[in-house]
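Dear Dr. H.,

I hope your travels went smoothly. While you were away I took the liberty of generating a structure for the chain from your last submission, since the lab meeting agenda had it listed for discussion. I wanted you to have the full record in hand beforehand rather than looking at slides cold. The sequence, exactly as received, is reproduced here:
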Amino acid sequence: MLEQFPYCPTLHARVAEIKALTQLPAATKDRLFPLIIARPWPNAKHLNRTWKKIAEALGNRRFALDLDRMRQNSGGKLAAAAEFDALFVSRNGFANYYDTVSDITEAIPVLRISGGEATQFDAQAHHIDDLDRGLVVRIEYGIVTNPIALVEQVLDRFNDVSFFVDAGWSRDILSREAWVSAIVARIARDNPEIEVVISGSTFPDSFSNIGDRGTNPVGERYLYDSLVRRHNSATLIYGDWGSTRPPSTDQVPMRNVPRIDLPKQSEWVSFRRDKELDEQEDYSDIAQRVVTDIDWPIDLDIWGTYTIEWTASGEPGAIRSPATAAAARINIHLHRQAFFGANDLVVDGDEPFTDD
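The corresponding predicted structure, in token form, is as follows:
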């Protein structure tokens, strides 16, 4: 199912992620298979707005369709909220969810997990058989009660299956390597040909200690590399969260300190306003530092780098908010990881994109 994809990111259907995905060059999109965690689109009356946004981003490319638990039972007044909640109803093997997947031609079903296990597994299996598109099983750290039992249950029933083993978000993701490794070992023991995506996130939750410039390693890469060395018979594929963190449940807004992140293949370089150096520095000032930095990729012509350049020169399309800064970062990160270790990192910068 995933044999031609070197990169399988997990992305929430939030504005920044979808915009970053939309603005990728076609050659980059062809190299990734995303697992998209859906939620109602902001202010949309109906849930189908989310499916339209995903289609605009990916075209006719396949993706795995998961659901954002954080948005369940949100109490939203628009019909989209109720339509979204219906997808979590377990009756008849999550029939509402599988009917929705059936209507989205490019969507691959993700096994529904409820209460830490695959609820109504046999009924779900019938839906999956009827769809005949294969299956993705996402095993999340701290969510699945018994990962090994789930793996055995799935392997006893399905052949056309791929696993996303998700270590979650952590500042120290390598501390979860043993948990991931045990799952990989069980899959590879009898089915070494089955694809296993190693996913997770270490994107920082604080930048207060970096001054005006700092770096953070892409810890997900180190986790993946370590597992590849340990399990040389397994079919492992790199995945991450596209340089994002989990959705926040905190209702108190974070203090907005202008920051622009420049993804490299194995680290993030962050440029931030340092009030001790310059309390007035804005996004334009920061962008000017970014484009003259030693790590600026002068030959990488994609939307994310263009956006930073527009910001530095004060042109339309410039970064004026954390959301646009995040979209630019995610766009560059997705492209970098899709071409990790490849020779064709530079793509045609004349490829059209929208500026909205």
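Two observations you may find useful: Residues 113 and 244 are 23 Å apart (CA to CA). The first helix runs from residue 15 to 22.

With kind regards,
E. W.
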